[in-house]
Design a protein that fits this description.
Bound molecules: adenosine monophosphate, glycine
Radius of gyration: 21 Å
Helix content: 25-40%
Strand content: 25-35%
Amino acid sequence: MGRKILIVGSGGREHALALRLLASDSVDEVIGCPGNAGMRRPPPDLAHKTLRVAEGSPVEVARREQVDLVVIGPEVPLCEGLADRLRAEGVLCYGPSGAAARLEGSKAFMKEFCRRHGIRVARDVIVRAPDELGRALASFEAPPVVKADGLCAGKGVVVAESHQEAKEAAERMLSGQSFGAAGATVVLEERLLGAEASVHAICDGQNSFVLPAAQDHKRIGEGDTGPNTGGMGTYAPAPLVDAVLAERVRKEIIERVVDGMAADGTPFTGTLFAGLMITPEGEPVTLEFNVRFGDPETQVLTMITEGDFGEALCAAARGELSADLLQVTESHAVCVVLASEGYPGTPRVGDVITGIERAEEESDVRIFHAGTKLRGEELVTAGGRVLGVTARGSSLAAARDRAYAACDRIEFAGKQLRRDIGARALG
Ligand code: AMP
Ligand code: GLY
């Protein structure tokens, strides 16, 4: 009998992980907890397997369902120690301990860790009280980037245009007005120029398997305009990170984190996601670490790897990752997010979604659900980012054309999308 795997979370990332795991030879069944509307049944090509959702706390569901592995999607349960609780129950779990998750959960911890282990980061000053702010600000010639220490659902960073704006943002954080306790400590950081890339590595506490670099598109508007979002689309591999740079990222960043965490007694098991700025001199500088798969980076990364993903994550969870479990293919993938009207402000919900089956008729296309729900028999919008329309191709242009053809088959009132996903790499 094949494996039964529980995925904690409810977004597009979790749907993508679920389908990638379900496509693994060693996996028969995947359960989303709580999952989403897309995870209630398997897609037609995997109809011989089981995909479903379950209610309840992940620890309870894991125990009740006797699953072989739990994969934790989002950062909040990781930072709250869910992996520790599962391991204490004897459940095999892919995801870092609460102590290791501080790499994402505290930016001050991350910066101190990087300094101790020789990982290049932007110059920073950590501010723990309002009376330290004036001096800290004065030490930056150009306006610094202001970061709340704790988890803020991706909203805790202010790229200030003036010292005054930085001061006001920092004051709002320190007073608790912006993010409550998550802003009680603030990191002021030198603003770097360059192009951003995300590098993900699957880690087993000692070893890592580095995936191709991806690029996200954070702003709502084409040409990187308008407010920030959770991510409007991704593509991979990102040619910005060539083979030489990828090797440097592996050696100077990923391996140093894995070795440093092990040396500090908090080994890192799970996905390490390095958010990098590639400076105009071609230097990779780490802006942030996430301790989980990115959303929507996962949607493209899962499309360009081959091998038994279920076996690879189980091996990583057991501390027995080996390099031959996964292979990176020669293909390219593009994910275009379809968002609802109003996003990234208050999204309108309840609009009927049509055309998904027709979109999926395109070969090498997957439609990952995020903010959807079933209203009777109808699928309706239920959040800001609704669907991640993802396609694979033998070139970036082919993958992009296929993804947009699929996007055009899906309709709902107020549908928003960016038409320039991947444009940077296509020139
Ligand atoms: P973070 O959550 O730390 O990745 O920050 C969110 C976004 O803020 C990044 O993706 C960058 O676009 C921007 N950012 C963060 N730190 C810096 C920095 N030191 N210089 C320039 N931009 C930054
Ligand atoms: N796409 C960015 C993130 O998952 O944090």
